[in-house]
Amino acid sequence: NPLAEEVLNKLASDKGIPRIRLICNSQVNVDAGLNERLVSFQSVALPFIALLIRNGIRESTFERQVNAIYSAVYAYIDSFIQDQVLNCVDELIRRKSLRDTSVEEQALLKNNAFIPVTCAQILLVLVRFINEILGRIREAKVNMTIQVIGGRLEQANNAWKDLLTSGHIVGDILSDGVADKPPYCFTVIDRELDKMKRILNMGKQSLEKGEENVKSSSENVSIDAKIIATQIELQRDYDPPGELSKLGKRHDNDAVNFQDIHIVPTSAEIFCKRSPFLPSSHSYAPHFLSAGPKRFLDIQF
Fold first, then answer.
1. Which superkingdom (predicted)?
2. What is the pTM of this model?
3. What pLDDT, in 10s, does the model give residues 27-67?
4. How far apart are CA 38 and CA 29, in angstroms?
5. Pairing of strands 39-40, 28-29
C-alpha cells in the first residue's frame, strides 16, 4: 500500500519520531477541545494510537521502521499510556459519555479522520495496541506497567459492559453512527483481551520462576529497536561544526578542524545560546568525517 508506506516513512523519519515524543510528553485531556496547549484524548491521542494498529502499519514489511515507532511510544508506556490515556478512559466511563464538554460536537469531528464514537472503539484500539507491543517487544510481557495496564483495560471493559447492558449509557455516541451492539462488540473485544491475558500470564509465570529480570520501561526496549531509535535521535540532533552547520558558525571559536579551536573559550563561546557540536562515539552516529584516524581524533578532542 503506497499510502501506508508513505505514512510509515514519515512517522519513522527524523521529523516523525520527535513528533511522536511530543504527543507522548503532552498533557492529555478529555476536555481539551481546540486548546493547543492540551492534547485531546478523543481527537489526537486515541486517533494516533489507532493509526499505529492499522494493517498498513503493523503488517508492513518495513520492520525496522515499525519497531522504531513502537519503541518510541513504548518508552512512554508509564507516563503516556498508563498515567494519561487510561486515566482518560476511566474518566469517560465514569461520566458515561465520550463527549468533550469544552467544544461543540461538530467542531470536534470536523477535520479528524478517526474519533471514537463508542466506548467499544476506544477499548478495541487500546487492547490491540497493547497486543502489538507484546508481540514486538519481548521484554514487555514482564514489564509491571504493562501488567497493570492489562488489568485496567479488563476492568474498564467490564465496567462498560455493565453500563451498556443496564442501559445507563447517556452519551455513548458522538455522532449519528450505530451504538455498541452486544453481544458482537463484546465478542471482538473479549477475544483481544484473551490474547493479551495469555501473553501477560506467561510473563507472570516467568517472573515467578525468576527467568526474567524486570527493568524500567525505558530499558525494556529490544536491542535492535533501541539502536534504531537512537540512530534516528542522533540524526535529528546532528548539527555539524563551523560553516558546515545550516545555521552557520555558532561563534568565533566554532571551527570544522578541531586543531583551529582554542582550548580557552572565547567570550562569544561562553555566551552562545546554541549547543556545541559534540560528536558521538557510536559507530552509527552521523559525522562530517568518514571513518578513520581523523574522525577518531575529532571525537576524542
1. Eukaryota
2. 0.66
3. 999 998 877 788 999 889 999 999 999 988 888 888 889 99
4. 7
5. parallel
Closest-CA residue to 253 (of 277, 287, 228): 277
- Give, in order, the Cα–Cα distances in Å from 128 to each of 53, 55, 96, 189, 201: 7, 11, 23, 9, 17
A 10 A CB-CB count for 130 gives: 25
Distance CA 89, CA 101 (A): 15
CA atoms of 21 and 134, how far apart (whole Å): 20
| Cα-to-chain-centroid distance, residue 258 | 38
Please report which confidence band the pLDDT of residue 269 belongs to, taking 50, 70 and 90 as the band edges: confident
The whole-angstrom separation of Cα 67 and Cα 56 is 14
**Burial call 262-288: b when 16+ CB within 10 Å, e when fewer:** eeeeeeebeebeeeebebeeeeeeebe
As given in the structure block, the three cell numbers for residue 244 are 558546515
In this structure, what C-alpha cell is assigned to residue 81?
499510556
Rounded Cα–Cα distance for residues 226 and 234 (Å): 12
**pLDDT above 90 for 276:** no
Cis, peptide link before residue 116, omega less than 30° from 0: no
Grid coordinates of 237: 540532533
Q: What is the 3-state secondary structure (H, E, C) of the chain?
A: CHHHHHHHHHHCCCCHHHHHHHHHHCCEECCCCCCCCCEEHHHHHHHHHHHHCCHHHHCCCCHHHHHHHHHHHHCCHHHHHHHHHHHHHHHHHHHCECCCCCCCHHHHHCCCCCCCCCHHHHHHHHHHHHHHHHHHCHHHHHCHHHHHHHHHHHHHHHHHHHHHHHCCCCECCCCCCCCCCCCHHHHHHHHHHHHHHHHHHHHHHHHHHCCCCCCCHHHCCCHHHHHHHHHHHHHHHCCCCHHHCCCCCCCCCCCCCHHHCCCCCCHHHHCCCCCCCCCCCCCCCCCCCCCCHHHHHHHHC
